[in-house]
Specification:
Elements lengths: L1 E5 L3 H10 L6 E6 L3 H11 L2 E2 L3 H6 L5 E4 L6 H10 L3 E5 L6 H14 L3 E4 L6 H11 L6 E9 L22 H17 L2 E9 L11 E8 L4 E7 L5 E8 L2 E7 L10 H4 L1 E6 L8 E2 L7 H15 L7 H19 L5 E2 H10 L10
Parallel strand pairs: 1-2, 1-4, 2-3, 4-5, 5-6, 7-10
Antiparallel strand pairs: 7-11, 8-9, 8-15, 9-10, 11-12, 12-13, 13-14
């Protein structure tokens, strides 16, 4: 499937490299408002540049468009793409606000297209293996989960960076890192019904955003979970799932995040069974995988069939709803906030034509 890409910064290059490993998707056109970016991208990846978005959207050979633009631009650009009858891919989060995310979701029904959201972390081979083991009953009844996604970004922020500002990166690492884990735990644990969160600001650079967050999650079946995210530490991505028959732990070397085909070379995955102690854990081999190529393949399949995939707008909105529930909980000094209440309130703020989404 031939697709276009809009916004030719660092992440566009990551996805363009991943697309080289796909036999389902070809990035055939590239657009940025900046001539230099278009020229550089075309030279590096051999993708035809276009001088305006309308030219890309008018091309009948283009089945979908990848958006790697700042979060607040997701909705207006997704709307243009959907109006042209093209399928939409946006990076996570689905949007800066839940209201905008819900409007993106309604584009699917309004224009008969699909929207794929780049929550790629759930596609890591180790996460899939934990999911399969839990579904097969190997862990017994899963009752508790914990996850952490942290890096040093808050130590590098300046007022020139959009992540500096509270309205563009709500909660700092909460909306930029923890949101990945909210989606992963939603995938592993099912419906999330409430969130309780606290945060702090400890980076010396003086950014508007908080840079530490801890969030407790309550699931519909009674299990609980925890997601931590620090923006002032070395990079880490870790998930641990606890069941009555065993626990599983998965961790990657964060330095390989942009090259996921190498994640398995240094990843850790083990299962600890029954009454066995840590010393008797069973190390499991993580197979090679590429989460970015996998999400692009899913997008290509949605372009081909017109059917949504698991990285759909609904799941993307659940992740951003958990972020906003956590933000409201922080304002209420850690009081639990129901996810359904956050979605319902956001829904009431939408134009009438979009209110049937939730």
């Amino acid at each position: 499937m031939k697709v276009g890409i809009v916004g030719l910064g660092r992440w566009a290059k990551v996805l363009a490299r991943a697309s080289r490993h796909s036999d389902r998707l070809e990035i055939a056109a590239a657009y940025s408002r900046t001539d230099e970016k278009r020229t550089t991208f075309a030279r590096e990846f051999g993708v035809s540049p276009v001088r305006d978005l309308s030219s890309m959207l008018a091309d009948p050979a283009i089945e979908g468009v990848i958006l790697t633009v700042p979060n607040e631009q997701h909705l207006p650009l997704a709307r243009e793409v959907a109006k042209a009858g093209k399928h939409v891919y946006t990076e996570k989060p689905i949007a800066t606000t839940l209201e905008a995310g819900l409007e993106i979701e309604v584009l699917e029904k309004t224009y008969g297209v699909t929207c794929t959201i780049g929550h790629s972390a759930r596609l890591m081979a180790g996460i899939r293996m934990i999911h399969d083991a839990a579904q097969a009953g190997e862990l017994g009844r899963v009752a508790f989960m914990e996850a952490n996604f942290s890096n040093e970004r808050a130590l590098e922020l300046t007022p020139k960076a959009w992540r500096w500002y509270r309205d563009r990166a709500p909660g700092g690492p909460l909306s930029q890192l923890a949101i990945h884990q909210f989606d992963v735990l939603h995938y592993l644990g099912g419906e999330i019904v409430a969130a309780s969160s606290i945060s702090s600001k400890l980076s010396p650079v003086g950014a508007e955003v908080d840079d530490q967050s801890m969030t407790l999650l309550k699931f519909a079946d009674g299990k609980i979970g925890y997601v931590g995210s620090s923006w002032t530490s070395p990079g880490v991505f870790m998930v641990r799932v606890f069941g009555s028959k065993g626990l599983m732990h998965y961790e990657i070397d964060f330095s390989t995040w942009d090259t996921p085909e190498k994640l398995h070379e240094s990843a850790t995955l083990f299962i600890q069974r029954g009454n066995d102690g840590y010393a008797k854990r069973e190390e499991l081999k993580v197979p090679a995988s590429d989460m970015f190529c996998a999400e692009l393949d899913m997008f290509a399949e949605s372009c081909r069939t017109g059917k949504p995939n698991e990285l759909n707008a609904r799941n993307g909105n659940i992740a951003i709803a958990v972020v906003y529930a956590a933000l409201r909980s922080i304002e209420k000094h850690g009081q639990a906030v129901a996810i359904a209440d956050v979605i319902e309130e956001a829904q009431r703020k939408l134009p009438r034509r979009t209110r049937h989404v939730a």
